Amino acid sequence: MPNIDTLKRIENFFHLANEKIYNNEEKVICRKGKKETISGFCTILQTLLDNTHEVAKNSKASFEIQAQVQSWIDYASLYIYAGKEDKHICKQLLQELNSYLEDKSYFVGQSLTVADIAVFYTIYDLMKRQTPLEKENLLNLSRWFDHLQQIDDIRQNLEQINFTTIYLHGWATGTR
Amino acid sequence: MAAQGTLYTYPENFRAYKALIAAQFSGAKVKVAQDFVFGETNKTEAFLKKFPSGKVPAFEANDGKVLSESNAIAYFLSNAQLRGGNCVYQQAQIQQWISFAENEVVPASCAWVFPLLGIMPFNKNAVEQAKKDAFAVLEVLNKHFLGNTFLVGERITLADIVVFSNLLHLFQYVLEPTVRAPFTNVTRWFNTILNQPQVLAVLKNYQVCAKQLQFDPKKFAEFQAKSGSAAPKKEAVKKDEKKPAAKKEKEPVEEMDAAELALAAEPKSKDPFDALPKGTFNFDDFKRVYSNEEEAKSIPYFFEKFDAENYSIWYGEYKYNHELTKTFMSCNLITGMFQRIDKMRKAAFASVCLFGGDNDSTISGIWVWRGQDLAFELSPDWQVDYEVYDWKKLDAKSEETKKLVTQYFSWAGEDKQGRKFNQGKIFK
Q1: Which residues constitute the domain of residue A149?
Q2: What would the pLDDT profile of A63-102 be if each residue is shown by its tens digit?
Q3: Is A147 within 8 Å of B143 when comparing Cβ atoms?
Q4: Quick check: B189 contacting A, CB < 8 Å?
Q5: pLDDT in the model for residue B343
Q6: How buried is residue B375: exposed, middle or buried, by Cβ count under 10 Å (0-12/13-18/19+)?
Q7: ∠ CA(A115), CA(A151), CA(B74), 5° rounding?
């Protein structure tokens, strides 16, 4: 399951009080709240949306949006996180995300939602490993990723990934 | 503090949208003047005093500040984020895209869309050129949006709002799905901007085009008919717009190419003589008699049938006889004129004669046509040559006229100075 780090960063993003996040003895991720302890990545993430931050509002704009956000969070935790260590699966995953973003600025709807943020943290180290040449084949994903990492609250203390070369190659190759 | 004030515009003005969207983002309180009537309010003295150009959108702040020009108003109503923050480079980039929007997007968009909306004459070549220009613009944007979510920086800025607003017509009327397919990135960005709550609040009924608008000649005719009254999109039509194209636009056939259009328009082009009463004189009959019979028969026939009420006889004399040199050149002068007024021949007849020889000759002729006035004035197409002649209307009943007509129709006699008849040309 996605790691503690991702949830901590999302906690920070929403400027929420840092609670203890840990894996319990059954290796299930838990967040110790004031009243009760919540377990499970998706469930914890839902509780983090209980605030007035713009992104939280965007993520709950309508039932459709909510459902789509949920499905991307599931996708991030079940597929991306699980497949991260396998080179071939990774390649396919990133390509999938790339083609998904071909005609979209954000994963859900037309504004930043927690789905973007969850996917961002989940693929951060993957993107970091990509060579310039590989990034060149992921232009849409790179555009989206770069857009998100420019937001200070999202990047936090993470190292900025360089996409400069794609601007050089970008005009020559096109999307498809 | 956010600005407050009133915006003057006609409904659904894409330029006014810029200001209204910017105001939505910044929280500026802008109300649209409800009693504004385009073509009336903006012609009043009070309005012109505030906004000398009389153009809309125009903005008046509650504290009395006035602004015209949409981009300036939008800038005024923006917040720091829309203006590019503190970074001068970003602010400059925004200016760059605003200029691009005005100089590249708007001309192409208008030249393509307005003829289809019927508020500009349709010219196939011009529209094709506009299409090319529009595609070039979209290509530039497409490349930019491949690597960027927004135009400048990573936030929505005035640049996005202005370029977006100027692209609205293209996406609304002509960029159907197959046409916009090559421009995925632009479409993606356009949809993102379009679906921002602040934008949706302004553009309430906007739909991206599902099917390309086709040229409809009826619309242009309708627009022409009512353009005296205040049509909402009238502002876009240039004042110096030429009217003659209107005739062609009425062809109720879609998608003809320019050549077909011209051909189809041809037979309908009105005969300027149609306005005049036909009378009893039949030119065709007379011309037949004149061609087939001896003058001894055809000239009396002419006077017998001639209808002096509806037709007139004229004497035309070349003004610059002293400039005439070779006789064949003088003859070309006459036949050239005949060719240029070819359309007149249905209701006119003439015998023009050259008297004298090389370097000493004169041109004069007898003309007959329908109507009592100079026929050349009926159509601009016929006015190339007539001014180099002195025209004298002859009294159809007088003996003198009879003599003159007989002389010219039978190609005989001499001119006033006694030069011998050389050659004659008949216009029939």
Answers
A1: 4-173
A2: 999 999 999 999 998 888 888 888 889 999 999 999 999 9
A3: no
A4: yes
A5: 80
A6: buried
A7: 105
Nearest to A143 among B148, B187, B196 (CB): B148
CB contact under 8 A, A170 and B146: yes
- What's the number of domains chain A is made of? 1
Of B143, B149, B191, the CB nearest to A147: B149
Q: Given an 8 Å threshold on Cβ–Cβ distance, is A105 in contact with B194?
A: no
Minimal Cβ distance to A175: which of B153, B184, B195: B184
Q: Find the helix or strand (DSSP H, E) in which B425 lies.
A: strand B421-427
For B101, phi then psi, to 5°, come to -60, -40
Chain-centroid distance of CA B159 in Å reads 34
CB contact under 8 A, A111 and B187: no
Nearest CA in chain B to A135: B147
How far is B236 from A4, CA to CA, in rounded Å? 59
SS3 string, A81-126, reads HHHCCCHHHHHHHHHHHHHHHHHCCCCCCCCCCHHHHHHHHHHHHH
Closest CB to A102 among B148, B184, B189: B184
Q: Label residue B329 exposed, middle or buried (CB < 10 Å: 0-12, 13-18, 19+).
A: exposed
Question: Which residues of chain A neighbour B153 with C-beta distances below 8 Å?
Answer: 150
What pLDDT is recorded for position B234?
Answer: 42
How near does any CA of chain B get to the CA of A68, in Å?
17
Q: Is B153's Cβ below 8 Å from some Cβ in A?
A: yes
Cα B61 to Cα B48, B58, B64, B113, B130, distances in angstroms = 16, 10, 5, 33, 37
Q: Which contacts (CB < 8 Å, 24+ apart) does range B231-235 have?
A: B231/B39, B231/B119, B232/B10, B232/B11, B232/B12, B232/B38, B233/B10, B233/B117, B233/B119, B234/B38, B234/B39, B234/B119, B235/B10, B235/B13, B235/B38, B235/B55, B235/B56
pLDDT tens digit sequence for B353-369: 888 888 888 888 998 88
Domains of chain B, first to last: 79-200 (1.20.1050.10), 275-427 (3.30.70.1010)
Check pLDDT > 50 for residue A146: yes
Out of A76-85, B90-99, B198-207, B291-300, give the one with best mean pLDDT.
B90-99
The answer to whether the Cβ–Cβ distance between B195 and A110 falls below 8 Å is: yes
Q: What are the φ/ψ torsions at residue B338 (nearest 5 degrees)?
A: -55, -40
Closest CB to A103: pick one of B150, B154, B187: B187
Q: What is the pLDDT of residues B391-407, one digit of tens each?
A: 888 888 888 888 888 88
Q: Which of the listed ranges B159-163, B203-207, B276-280 does the model predict with the highest average pLDDT?
A: B159-163
The kind and range of the H/E element at B8 are strand B4-8
Which chain B residues are closer than 8 Å to A174 by Cβ? 146
Provide, as residue numbers in chain A, all residues whose Cβ is less than 8 Å from the Cβ of B147: 139, 142-143, 146, 163, 166-167, 170
With residue B427 as reference, give the H or E element that holds it: strand B421-427
Instruction: Tell me which chain B residues have a C-beta less than 8 angstroms from the C-beta of A150.
Output: 153-154
